[in-house]
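During the reporting period, our protein records have gained a structure token line. A sample record is set out beneath this paragraph:
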Amino acid sequence: MNVLMVGAGGVGDAAARIAVERDYFDSWVVADYDLSRAERTVAAAAERRPGDTRFRAAQVDASDADAVAALAREVGATHVFNAVDPRFVMPIFTGALAAGADYLDMAMSLSVRHPDAPYEQVGVKLGDEQFAMAGEWDAAGRLALLGIGVEPGLSDVFARYAADELFDHIDELGTRDGANLVIRDDAGNEVFAPGFSMWTIIEECLNPPVVWERGRGGGDLESGFFTLPPFSEPEVFDFPEGIGPVECVHVEHEEVLLMPRWVDADRVTFKYGLGEEMIGILRTLHTLGLDSTEPVSVKGVQVSPRDVVAACLPDPATIGPRMEGKTCAGLWVRGTGKDGAPRSTYLYHVVDNADSMRDYGAQCVVWQTAINPVVALELLADGTWSGTGVLGPEALPPKPFLDLLAAPRPEGFGSPWGMEEKS
């Protein structure tokens, strides 16, 4: 296996630090628009395993499908791993196909709001552009594995596991994500610094969130999708391992677009514990038009307001030393258990920032996202996972993934997951 990873931001950097400990690949090229950033990631990986020569850096424009394809051919990539934000999904996705490589990402192609009823009806949904090309990937005998980060990703693996092992009937698959993270400045004061890309946070939190219900419309897959206003239906969810109660709201997210395709359920939702401060900031950005991606002229220079907001905040890859607390990603499944009795179960994965910083020098939010594609690539390398076309994690067997993730190092990745029964 020869991996071309596009993106050396926080998640890409963490993925390289995790992957260097594994032996399943022959080469791992880290490519970024900023070559120096790719070189720093390669150096960080090499430092963790002196003498390892499998990593090298390259420069690429992720917005140029031809450039991605050319680099993939040049380095002999068997797998193109997309580790940049979702605005670059389609050029990397199509570039990988053109180069005859398999593909993985952690976020899907972007949505477009319904022009007339954005808070009721879906328009172009997350992933629609990719699923429209499924036949081309299948005909080429290549696999595009979508949404294999943590959310989407591990939560989708949990959905398949719950359907296979725990439930006879699922009323709701509800992804629930929360944390008790705090970031402090040099004086010890709490400051605002998101744990992952602010560009992506704005995109998914201010877009109309999507919900899927089996019984809507004609009862087929597509008729089950509908939208709500941002931050709808707040609920307090009690997260495990000391995180505690966090208010969660609907957010647009890939799980809702993936899970109904392969897992039988009556309803699929995604709610995220944003917190009052983040919701207030997002509302203000929207009011001021600073969430827009359309360039505006500032003293003769064309700039995107959202790019400016993101550039003004700390790089998520750099805030780990100032971060405290834990982050939790998981899936709340409600329905009828294998014994015929009502069941409510939360399957989850918690990472303490102190642990990820100590062991990998990566803050917990990016580390938790990065570990899952590295696990998936290992399963693809040894043939445990396989397929062609455009698939989500739910289409593949969950137990090998969960076992490899949790098994102690060096046999596995030493990152156990948990399960908690809810009332």
In short: The domain at 2-116+125-149+368-416 is CATH 3.40.50.720 (Rossmann fold). The chain has a mean pLDDT of 95.
